[in-house]
Design a protein that fits this description.
With about 550 residues, this protein is of the alpha/beta class. The chain is built from 17 helices and 24 strands. About 35% of the residues lie in helices and about 20% in strands. Its EC number is 6.3.4.21.
């Protein structure tokens, strides 16, 4: 994802920009989509009306929920789906020479004006088997959309879910910062991860490009290299710093910092914790504070956290305080984070008490260093004083699970339901064009998602409905919903006059996602042995699935 391509599609007075990444074009697909498209065209089947469901079979990370993401990029692709002459020339070269010229003329005029897309709102909490997208349209163009749509949703939903899981373990009160760009799978992986981690509940990113593209708040301070680049305070040339309100100026901020480090060393309450601190580190902190007095945050583990980093930070923060500035805090990037954060908090508290600086004891503490769900959980159990987490590698690479496993299955053609069978029941598809609903109970929690046939009456509040497991006849339950929410809405009506849902801004999607996650029952969300959320079908759809299954499955013969 490099930059936004120029908007080129105007629908109903609304411009739909192209995909964020210019690599996302109709060519971003598998070769077999083109070979199938040609075979459809050759058999004169290419215009037959088909319905495909895009869904996944199992929640990731051993959990029982998933966050749906990537819808906006899908709509951007669909709205701007058009082959260039260069595209068609390359496709011609890539297919066997026996392919007829008429097929390439067909591709030349192809767009998604006859396609309709129904989807669950981006940022929703979703579950296996329930369609995330329903694509309706001519079978050839729908087939060409399969690979890019799966690609755009698979990683987006996986990393958004990973972010949501980290948020759940960290808790609402902690600030979560995504620091994964340098470890991500290439530029596209880095940009996508930043966007969808924010959607999943993170507060900010270090990724400047993502900040520009998506309006995500940016956070960052300095590295160990900045600290070790200084040798002594003598390197600081401009030592003056104006006060926060502009009313006065300190001509020698370096001397002010040195005065404070001496005071801290002589403090009764802090005596014995440290001796002489590293002066090159003190110089680096001082220089950084001169550059950023309103947002001074120091990385304190370059040499020794408690014997040098924390005292040096406090000296600079107290010198800033004399001029009306409030330091932002520290970052710990190594060592025993639980212990060091607690010791740092004690040190800050002692400074507040010793020198009468209100609020100093609440100085911000950020932790980084290859954090993941397990380390956050361990920190919670040990007890810590961390306010913010900077999380990178394990978050953006989805180290715990490589892929979500989205699939794209034909469920209807020419109004005839189709089913995909397998000896593995989890891979049997649910046929026909369906409607999906979320049923809520008395306490406001979602109880079950139910799929029905397109023409079945909708579930109604207060009316008892039988919910059946799609494949296990013994699993069934009656539900009397207190609220019914239809999940699939039209996000691309093609050339039809159906009303179309707007694509909300990223921040609104994030807010909606957080609210949905908070509305889930806690036992579905917990890390250890979460309760599976129920996904069901109506009694009528259950009967039809099994009728079609028996009708399509070949009957064996014993000899």
């Amino acid at each position: 994802m490099v930059e936004k391509v120029k908007a080129n599609c105007n629908y109903s007075g609304r411009v739909v920009e192209g995909p964020t990444n210019p690599i996302v074009t109709p060519l971003l697909t598998d070769l077999y989509q083109f070979t199938m498209a040609y075979a459809y065209w050759k058999a004169n089947k290419h215009q037959e009306r088909a319905v495909f469901d895009l869904y996944f079979r199992k929640n990731p990370f051993g959990g029982e929920y998933t966050v749906f993401a990537g819808l906006e990029e899908c709509i951007r692709l669909i709205a701007n789906f058009k082959f260039t002459e260069d595209d068609i020339s390359f496709i011609r070269e890539s297919l066997p020479g026996s392919c007829e010229d008429g097929f390439f003329d067909y591709l030349r005029g192809l767009d998604c004006s006859e396609v309709e897309v129904y989807a669950i709102a981006e940022g929703s909490v979703v579950f296996p088997k329930v369609p995330l997208l329903r694509i309706e349209g001519p079978i050839a163009v729908a087939q060409l959309l399969e690979t890019p749509l799966v690609n755009l949703i698979n990683f987006a939903s996986l990393v958004a879910t990973n972010a949501a899981r980290h948020r759940f373990v960290a808790g609402k009160s902690k600030s979560l910062l995504e620091f994964g760009l340098r470890r991500a799978q290439g530029p596209d992986g880095g940009i996508s991860a930043s966007k969808y981690c924010y959607l999943g509940g993170f507060d900010a990113t270090s990724n400047v490009a993502a900040g520009r593209l998506f309006g995500i708040p940016l956070r960052g301070t300095h590295s160990h290299a900045f600290v070790s680049s200084y040798m002594s305070p003598d390197e600081i040339i401009d030592k003056s710093l104006q006060s926060a309100d502009g009313s006065s100026s300190c001509e020698d901020f370096v001397s002010s910092v040195q005065t404070w480090i001496n005071k801290i060393q002589c403090s009764n309450s802090l005596r014995g914790i440290f001796g002489e601190t590293n002066q090159s580190e003190l110089a680096a902190f001082t220089s950084y504070a001169l550059a950023f007095p309103r947002s001074f945050l120091a990385l304190v583990d370059t040499y020794d956290v408690m014997r040098s980093g924390i005292p040096n930070f406090c000296a600079v923060a107290l010198a800033l305080n004399d001029l009306g500035y409030k330091a932002a805090g520290i970052r710990l990037d190594s060592g025993d984070l639980a212990y060091l954060s607690c010791e740092a908090r004690k040190f800050f508290g002692a400074i507040e008490k010793e020198f009468g600086v209100p609020g100093f004891g609440k100085m911000g503490i950020t932790a980084s260093n290859d954090l993941n769900e397990e380390t956050l959980d361990a920190l919670n159990k040990q007890g810590h004083e961390v306010d913010s987490y900077g999380i990178g590698t394990y978050l953006v690479t989805c180290y715990a699970q490589a892929a979500l496993g989205c699939v794209f299955k034909l469920v209807e053609i020419n109004n005839q339901p189709r089913i995909k069978l397998s000896e593995d029941v989890s891979k049997v598809s649910i046929p026909c064009k369906k409607r999906s609903y979320r049923l809520y109970g008395r306490e406001g929690y979602p109880l079950v998602d139910i799929m029905t046939g397109e023409n079945e009456p909708s579930p109604k509040v207060g009316e008892r409905i039988l919910c059946r497991h799609p494949f296990n006849e013994s699993k069934r339950a009656y539900v009397v919903p207190q609220q019914v929410e239809e999940l699939l809405k039209c996000y691309w009506p093609g050339s039809s006059d159906k009303p179309r849902e707007d694509l909300p801004p990223l921040k609104d999607i994030r807010d909606s996602c957080i609210k949905q996650l908070e509305r889930m029952r806690p036992d579905h969300m917990r890390k250890l042995n979460p309760t599976p959320y129920k996904v069901s079908v109506s009694a009528k759809l259950y009967d039809f699935i099994h009728f079609l299954w028996l009708n399509e499955a070949p009957v064996g013969e014993l000899q």
